[in-house]
Amino acid sequence: MSAFQQLVRSNESGILTGWIHEMSSTTRRSDLMDDADLKQQAAEFLRLFTDAAQSGSDVQAQEFAATREFLKAIAKSRMEQGFSPVETAMFVLSLKQPVFNALKDALKANASELVTEIWLSGDLLDKLAMLTVDIAIVFREQTISRQQEEMLELSTPVVKLWDGVLALPLIGTLDSARTQVVMESLLTAIVETNSQVAIIDITGVPTVDTLVAQHLIKTITAARLMGADCYLSGIRPAIAQTIVHLGIDLIDVQTKAKLSDAFAVALQRLGKTVVSIKTSASHAPKGRE
Amino acid sequence: MDRIPILKFGDCLLVTIQVDMHDELAMSLQEDLTAQIAKYASRGVLIDISSLEIVDSFIGRMLANIAAMSRVLDAQTVLTGMQPAVAITLVELGMSLPGIKTALNIERGMELLKEYVKQEVDAEDVDDTES
Fold first, then answer.
1. Is residue A81 pLDDT above 70, yes or no?
2. Which domain holds residue A71?
3. Residue B28 · residue B3 · CB < 8 Å
4. How far apart are CA A206 and CA A174, in angstroms?
5. In this complex, is the C-beta atom of A251 within 8 Å of any C-beta atom belonging to chain B?
6. Touching check for B33 and chain A: CB below 8 Å?
7. CA A162, CA B108: separation in Å to the nearest integer?
8. What would the pLDDT profile of A115-125 be if each residue is shown by its tens digit?
9. Which of A7, A20, A154, B32 lies deepest, with the highest CB count within 10 Å?
10. Are residues A226 and A245 both part of a single domain?
11. Quick check: A209 and A246 in contact, CB under 8 A?
12. Nearest to A232 by CA among A244, A247, A221, A241
């Protein structure tokens, strides 16, 4: 490693200039990052890299810890800024050209040593570039799993329609994992708000198969066990047909075509009616406002 | 051996389960309760399980049995304060306790029982809007 090491040390500013030139011609994203930041990052990396390269070419070694940390920070911030993993890797890979050039100038006379040094430094830079790709992938996976959780939370909101009336508008297909969240959030909300009636609205559920129906029945039974009435609403004609064709037994479940109908029944159950202000004298009960 | 206390409250019996149920305790409750219903000719039984956090199929069956026995002795059973986790467990075990009336808390449970027993007590707060 000595030749390569000494070379980088002695010619640091030259290599840095060459590197930045290389970067600006290949992967420069001036829309995402300004020159000063890039220069600073490049200089910092070159310093850490030459310090660490003394030890050998094992990037997992203790000597490379600082370099790895630095790359991790760079990869993360670049992913957040909108760089692609390839563009981040090119940050490291574009250092090859100036280093190779410098090696070529220094070891012109000795061809075999030149090849060895180029091989060693190239190998090392490749490994470091792979490291940034690795970090980028992990970062992206974390983002995806976080978004999945958020989607799960977002798609099962429990809303309070009235004192003692909860509604759960379901959107999307129900699978086992989602059903668990739906069930838990509804039952917890029933306890928290001390509600007597819960309405599960499946207007946003595109298909109801036997599994989904079974999940719904379970949720409704659990709510009943806790002492709350549970209605099912928003059943589209096509879904009604499917349910009957599949032979699903919804006898014990009170169902309504629209959320408003279920809400009217819920209010009735609580002994309340909605009265139009103008014709309040007639006391006409209304389901919808 | 500790026992679960059964309180007499007018025509009704009140049972609040405050400890984790084990099988023997459940059996003794079953015996005590049926004896008390017969003794006082009670019309309603309220069982509060709000502090019960773990149930198994045995406890579930015991609750169903108590309800069935009470019905034979002409008393209505209301189960109150079931925790979400307990409800989920019972449903997953396939026990929907069809014969039992349920309520969110003791207050609601008593209202249900009074409605069933039709005591004079609730004549005072008759709600006009009730249909």
1. yes
2. 3-152
3. yes
4. 10
5. no
6. no
7. 18
8. 888 888 888 88
9. A7
10. yes
11. yes
12. A221
ipTM: 0.74
- How would you label A42-79 residue by residue, b for 16+ Cβ within 10 Å and e otherwise? beebbbbbbebbeeeeebeeeebeebbebbbebbbebb
- The CATH number assigned to the domain holding A193 equals 3.30.750.24
Least confident window among A50-54, B44-48, B105-109: A50-54
Is A188 at the interface with chain B, CB within 8 A?
Answer: yes
Nearest-Cα residue of chain B relative to residue A223: B87
Q: Indicate whether A29 and A143 sit together in one domain.
A: yes
For residue range B16-39, what is the model confidence (pLDDT) as tens digits?
A: 988 877 888 888 899 999 999 999
Measure in Å the smallest separation between the Cα of A33 and chain B Cα atoms: 51
DSSP string, B40-51: HT-SEEEEE-TT
d(CA A26, CA B58): 71
The residue whose two tokens read 């609403």 is A233
Structural domain includes residue A282:
no
Helix, strand, coil shares of chain A, percent, nearest 5, are 65, 10, 25
In chain B, % helix, strand, coil (3-state, to 5) comes to 45, 15, 40
Predicted pLDDT at A280: 56
Mean residue pLDDT of chain A comes to: 83
Provide the pLDDT for residue A90: 85
pTM: 0.64
> Scanning every residue of chain A, which has its alpha carbon at the shortest distance from the alpha carbon of B60?
A225
A273 at interface of B, judged by CB pairs closer than 8 A: yes
